[in-house]
Amino acid sequence: MSSLVEPAPPTEDGYRPSPRRLAREAYRRRRSRRAALVATVSTAGTALALGLLVVNSPGWQRTKETFLDLDRAREALPKVLEGLWVNLELTLVCGALIVVFGLLLAILRTLRGPVLLPVRLLATAYVDFFLGLPLIICLLILITGVPALRLTGVTADPLLLGGAALVLTYSAYVSEVFRAGIQAVHPSQRAAARSLGLSNAQAMRYVVLPQAVRRVVPPLLNQLVSLQKDSGLVSIGGVIDAVYAAKIITGRTFNYTPYLVAALVFVALTIPLTRLTDWVSARMSGREQQGGAV
User: Fold this and answer.
1) pTM above 0.70?
2) How many Å from the N-terminal Cα to the C-terminal Cα in the chain?
């Protein structure tokens, strides 16, 4: 087999690959091309089979008219995109507040000393409560319950109340992410910082937190993806976001294509964030395997 492979020209440093090595490399290339071809054919065949199954189903024509009306899609897209700005604003503003509040809760839960036990208990009770409370119920309580109380100086704006519900709920989740990152830092790091004369607060700020935050970047990005999707739940209070804009058109035309348009818009926003999370995770995993900094 090696006699069929022409010898390669020498490189600049005079190295000439052996015929056996060239044969192995050619064999690997053939296997890679064959695997890519098989994967392409398999994927195309599966997609074709699923498409034929859907198109030939008894209710396909009715489904096409109800969910795939191009005229309704063109009508709904501008309104959905206009409402999407509300979702983006909620995601950015609430995301920043959630990170700050969640980090504060995580620090409070990791404080040491018997005198700080009440603080730890309050932080733990908060996290346990909002981890167990469904987001939809929190939204309903704040958006419908707070205005009913008619408290002086308290807003009745459903957008602000919905954002507050997102912050309260997601802060509990994010605090657990930060706490896991803090606990993942080896205790010797804190002990070394203390031996150098740093206080507990300084050791947390300059030694523990930088390492913990780097470790939890991928799960934090996952929480951001979830927040971006759940921002559409504020529409239950009448906030005209992408979801409610689709609902208005659907209620007028009795066609559900606007909901599909809103779904595709959210998916188009979510996929880049998901791929960014995968890239960050792979990059950090590669650094760990190479023995570099996380």
Assistant:
1) yes
2) 46
